[in-house]
Amino acid sequence: APARAWCSTMDTQTAVDAVVIGAGASGLAAAQRLRAAGASVVVLEARDRIGGRCFGCLGAGFVDACHRRVRRHVEELGLQLKPQYRQGLSVLEALPSRRHVFVGTNIPSGLSLRTSLALARVLTSLEVSIDRIVGDLEDPWATCTEVAKRLDRFSLQDYFDLRTKDEEAHAILAAAVKPIFGKTPEEIGLLWFLYYCKSNRSLSRLMAVQNGSQEFKIANGSFQVLCDRLSQGLDIRLGQVVTAIRRCQAPVRSVHKTASLPSEEQGGAGPTRPPAAAADTQSVELDEPSGNLAEASDATRASTKRPAAGLQVANSTTGEGSPRQAVEVELRDGQVLRARTVVLALQPHLYDTIAFDPPLPQAKRKMAQIFKYSRSRFVKLRVLYASPWWRKQGLSGELLSGAGPVVYFLDDCSDDEAALLGFVVADHLTEEWCRLDSRQSRLEAVRQQLFALTRNAAALEPTGFEEMDWTREVFTSSCVPSFPKNSFEAWKALRLPCWDETLLFAGAETATHGVGYVEGALQAGERAAHEALRSLGVQLGSFAAEEPRAHSESENLPGFFEKLFFGRVLQASHLEARGGFQS
Fold this sequence. Notes:
Elements: H1 3-6, E1 13-21, H2 25-36, E2 41-45, E3 62-63, H3 68-76, E4 81-83, E5 89-93, E6 100-102, H4 113-133, H5 145-151, H6 156-163, H7 167-181, H8 190-199, H9 203-207, E7 216-218, H10 223-230, E8 236-238, E9 242-254, E10 284-286, H11 293-302, E11 324-331, E12 336-344, E13 355-357, H12 362-373, E14 378-385, H13 389-392, E15 395-401, E16 408-411, E17 418-425, H14 427-435, H15 439-454, E18 464-469, H16 488-491, E19 503-505, H17 518-535, H18 560-566, H19 572-576
Parallel strand pairs: 1-2, 1-12, 2-8, 5-15, 9-13, 12-19
Antiparallel strand pairs: 3-7, 4-7, 5-6, 9-10, 9-11, 11-12, 14-17, 14-18, 15-16, 16-17
Helix pairs in contact: 2-17, 4-7, 4-8, 4-18
């Protein structure tokens, strides 16, 4: 139906300042930020629970020491972190029957000199290239767009093929990459890989436990606990599937009571659990359609003034708030919510499930389509035991396998149970896993794999088994954002607002720091809320994309001599010079 006819006054309509779609960590962070500034907010969630990808022990689980927003929220919400167990040796079996041990991110022992040198050359060259090629994370290709476009023609596997012919080096590199991205190197665009690593500090940091992305976990719980506490005080409506979002002619205005918050320049992002008074908003009024809505929107922005201190909602010269063009959200059951701004905290592939009027820009639609067909695939599982037998064996619990079905294990013990956490990833392995048609057959495959990796009969005596197939989650189905080659122009559109900044986008995929982690989800949610407040007439400074350092953080980068001997910077010409690449 035409937008103007569709946007009519209905008994089922509710008017608020902001509607946030998605009650994962990103949506909750956005909603709390808006609520803290005095805006009226409704959060819509299609599932019957909050948290999104933060779901118990089988959802998002790890915290890097550099995840500053997570650490701030953990402290503000009264939670604690505990270090991931890392004592002992780790085991790698990239090729069948070739088992090696290693510590941290060191090159495994027992490799041939050729394989060791190949790994050092590839990994160090990538680390150096990440810093040299990827610039400012907010606009990483501003100074090298042409270079970026040329590199975008190649996959990560293309780069591995260029740098080494060693079979075992290739297998080890693939084994290292798959648990991070949920895809094989052939499926990952080289440019996206460099950006993702830069967003998370470095490749070695992504692979590491100590001084790495798997360094901490939430103590006595999981990120689900963080989301539960982050949701307090919010108007969250579960089981609400959004079918349409349309911009309509009738403008909407509202009057706010304001809450003073720390400025972005001071590193504050506002309290995640604001005082009750901050959420006390007056009723929202629907105005009659004006003759020129674009002029009214411009007048709204022009009439606002910078507040003396804190965050304050600027009023129009009438003192009642300025009218602005409304956005309406239609639900599957026919309900309609009208808002001044909408924050879409969903994975991009879900954009296709919503009818947008007017349609999203072409670049945004193309990005969503690419994301839909290049989603990472993850199955997470836990194998429980009577005791942590691997610790007695001198192992850390970190086990990598090239053949699978589980490509990565980590120690996941708590105070009252011993467990190993496992990851089944990538299309071919998850498909094989799903073909095991019973829970018992899947457990048997894991038992035999653990025995083969550790040579310990205790691996064959689990006391319990839990699994979560994220590929079957209708409203998730992908855990880590991943783009293939030839998608540079599309994924640049990830964060771009639409409809004169009344339709905004959050989610871990749209972050610039901590992409793919809860850190990124929180950053994206707070950034979207910042954009929403500005579109509502709040005068703000620039958004603090990275918070000031508040805790100790250790680097995890190649040493000087590794850079000296192996750190050849990646250039597009290196790839193009290889036979067959020109054509």
